[in-house]
């Protein structure tokens, strides 16, 4: 093969990327049609299609520039005449992408209760670029807007919410959420930042430091702080909204520096000191931690899971097209059984994650619209932690497999989007709750609430006869979690395995239910404890079927 022929293969691979990644995503569209119909589905499809087109023409080229080290955001502590401004300056391409993202409605839809499917679909499309640069600000803004809409007093809500719902990026306020302090992100109860009453009967003054502040350029911060005289731990935390500026000056905060991160580099994450920053409570002070977890963090966990599913979809698209066009030893690499197996594994993980994320979105939609049953609330409580935990790990693994399929080229930043997806996926694993923290949350909830009973009845009702082993797999997973619930010593060692089992079997059930029994069988087989390819006689046939779709 000549140099030109080899390059022609690479050009063909790049050209294979769809102009409209929504229109070509038959599985996503099939899932949406299972949950929605009529005018709502039609409107969502039109909105998603328009945004998908903007993703390829506007957001992708912009992100390819501002996510590179030479064009990252810079900290500007002072203005030209030496006044402290604590600004973050971005490459102009960052704002070009931001305009398209905000115009999609992904954030402004937060003003309408029960738009979870629309927001999930748009964020999924955004995540095809691994685009945490705007996915994180959008998510933080959505979480803050939801907290204000659902929990804040009327006056606070009406003052802060409208600017967060603005569809015009140039005029919109963007939100951030600051919980983590240097003494620990998992142990939020160790927060030492304090909020003293200001004396005006309405506002508080926040003092202390926050150690991980993503969207350090935001216009409104959601901040947790300790109320004087309140109990220790999480019970003593209030939730507040802090405007970045008051009277055109920084509102009692100083940005120390921006962090130099492994991933999500397009986004500015800093360390911030607060000194008497004026803050407005969101909801009753004594319920501050509840607001932080049940609305803000849970919104972020759901959206992180959507982002993980988007990352996986992109990795699959890149790897499958590459394997089709790239030749080695005289044939396309997609003909090698080992490559085929990797591609099939990637595809079933991506599809399984998307199916499970959409099941979570379905409950999110009802909760946000105020239409949820008590069972829905319980199901959501288990799903949101399980799904964020599982999909963020799957995303890292699928992005890494994608890099493997591209070979050495897969590690090169200018060659493909995959290095960025991989770096972002690793960050997704930590933020909004590390794996162990989410697992511990599930365990605590299992002890207090009938979550396993709800999970059993919801999942059993969906089990299809097409896939052998689903019922048994579900029984095994539920038994493992029941034992963890009843035996803390056992749980300390086996909880994560038990969660993995439930997560994968749930993905397989939703895959089968959505018309992908072979993918369900493959995921279930490959994730079974003690799986042995040597005795898996159906492997080649399954792989062929999965890749023929
Ligand atoms: C790029 C980036 C941006 C971020 N942006 C924000 C932001 O905007 N706002 C914000 O509030 N935070 C933010 N975070 C912080 C993030 O939420 C925390 O990193 C995360 O919550 C974990 O906290 P930690 O880093 O202090 O780890 P630790 O709490 O120190 O945990 C370290 C390890 O110990 C494990 N561990 C802790 N407790 C237990 C336990 N009980 N049992 C078993 N294992 C345990 C954890 O699972 C983890 O593996 C960001 C993080 C990153 C990486």
Features:
single chain; binds flavin-adenine dinucleotide; alpha+beta; Butyryl-CoA Dehydrogenase, subunit A, domain 2; seven-stranded mixed sheet; 13 strands; two-stranded antiparallel sheet; 549 residues
Structure notes:
With 549 residues, the chain is an alpha+beta fold. Among the domains are: 175-285, Butyryl-CoA Dehydrogenase, subunit A, domain 2; 450-548, no CATH class. It has helices at 3-15, 26-35, 38-66, 92-103, 116-127, 132-151, 154-164, 288-325, 337-368, 374-406, 418-430, 435-448, 451-460, 470-486, 488-513, 517-526, 539-548; strands at 74-78, 84-89, 175-178, 194-197, 204-214, 220-226, 237-243, 245-246, 249-250, 253-258, 269-281, 327-328, 331-332. The strands form four sheets. Strands 3, 4, 5, 6, 7, 10 and 11 form a seven-stranded mixed β-sheet that branches. A two-stranded antiparallel ribbon has the order 1-2. A hairpin with a 2-residue loop joins strand 8 (245-246) and strand 9 (249-250). The longest helix is centred in the middle third of the chain and has 38 residues, at 288-325. The chain is globular and about 75 Å long. The two termini are 30 Å apart. The model has no long low-confidence stretch (mean pLDDT 96). The protein binds flavin-adenine dinucleotide. Residues 177-180, 184-187, 212-214, 261, 264, 269, 427, 430-431, 434-437, 440 line the site of flavin-adenine dinucleotide. Flavin-adenine dinucleotide (FAD) binds next to strand 3, strand 5, helix 11 and helix 12.
């Amino acid at each position: 093969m000549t140099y030109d022929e080899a390059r022609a293969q690479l050009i063909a691979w790049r050209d294979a990327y769809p102009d409209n990644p929504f229109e070509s995503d038959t599985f996503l569209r099939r899932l949406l049609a299972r949950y929605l119909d009529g005018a709502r589905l039609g409107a969502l499809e039109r909105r998603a299609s328009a945004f998908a087109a903007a993703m390829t023409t506007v957001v992708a080229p912009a992100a390819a520039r501002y996510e590179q080290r030479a064009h990252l955001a810079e900290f500007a502590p002072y203005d030209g005449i030496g006044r402290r401004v604590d600004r973050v300056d971005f490459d102009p391409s960052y704002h070009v992408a931001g305009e398209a993202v905000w115009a999609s409605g992904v954030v402004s839809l937060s003003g309408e209760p029960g738009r979870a499917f629309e927001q999930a679909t748009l964020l999924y499309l955004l995540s095809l670029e691994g685009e945490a640069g705007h996915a994180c600000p959008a998510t933080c803004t959505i979480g803050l807007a939801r907290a204000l809409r659902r929990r804040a007093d009327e006056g606070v809500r009406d003052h802060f919410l409208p600017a967060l719902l603005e569809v015009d990026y140039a005029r919109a306020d963007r939100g951030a959420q600051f919980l983590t302090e240097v003494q620990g992100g998992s142990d939020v109860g160790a927060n030492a930042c304090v909020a003293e009453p200001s004396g005006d009967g309405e506002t508080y003054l926040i003092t202390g430091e926050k150690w991980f502040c993503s969207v350090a350029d935001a216009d409104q911060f959601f901040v947790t702080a300790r109320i004087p005289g309140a109990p220790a731990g999480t019970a003593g935390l209030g939730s507040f909204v802090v405007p970045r500026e008051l009277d055109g000056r920084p509102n009692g905060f100083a940005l120390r520096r921006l962090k130099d991160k492994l991933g999500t580099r397009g986004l500015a994450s800093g360390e911030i000191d607060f000194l008497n920053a004026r803050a407005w409570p969101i909801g009753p002070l004594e319920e501050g931690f509840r607001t932080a977890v049940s609305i803000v963090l849970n919104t972020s966990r759901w959206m992180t899971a959507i982002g993980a599913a988007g990352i996986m979809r992109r990795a699959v698209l890149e790897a499958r097209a590459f394997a089709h066009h790239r030749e080695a030893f005289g044939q396309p690499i997609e003909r090698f059984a080992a490559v085929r197996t990797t591609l099939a594994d990637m595809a079933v993980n991506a599809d399984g994650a998307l199916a499970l994320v959409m099941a979570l979105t379905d409950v999110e939609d009802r909760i946000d619209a105020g239409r949820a049953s008590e069972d829905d609330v319980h199901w959501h409580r288990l799903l949101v932690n399980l799904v964020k935990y599982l999909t963020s790990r799957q995303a890292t693994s699928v992005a890494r497999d994608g890099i493997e399929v591209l070979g050495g080229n897969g590690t090169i930043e200018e060659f493909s989007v995959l290095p960025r997806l991989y770096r972002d996926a690793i960050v997704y694993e930590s933020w909004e709750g590390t794996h162990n923290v989410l697992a511990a949350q599930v365990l605590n909830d299992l002890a207090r609430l009938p979550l396993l009973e709800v999970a059993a009845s919801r999942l059993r009702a969906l089990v299809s006869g097409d896939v052998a082993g689903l019922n048994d797999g579900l029984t095994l997973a539920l038994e493992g979690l029941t034992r963890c619930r009843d035996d803390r010593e056992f749980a300390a060692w086996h909880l994560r395995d038990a969660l993995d089992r439930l997560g994968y079997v749930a993905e397989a059930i939703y895959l089968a239910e959505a018309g992908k029994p072979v993918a369900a069988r493959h995921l279930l087989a490959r994730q079974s404890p003690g799986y042995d390819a040597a005795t898996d006689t159906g492997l080649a046939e399954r792989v062929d079927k999965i890749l023929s779709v």
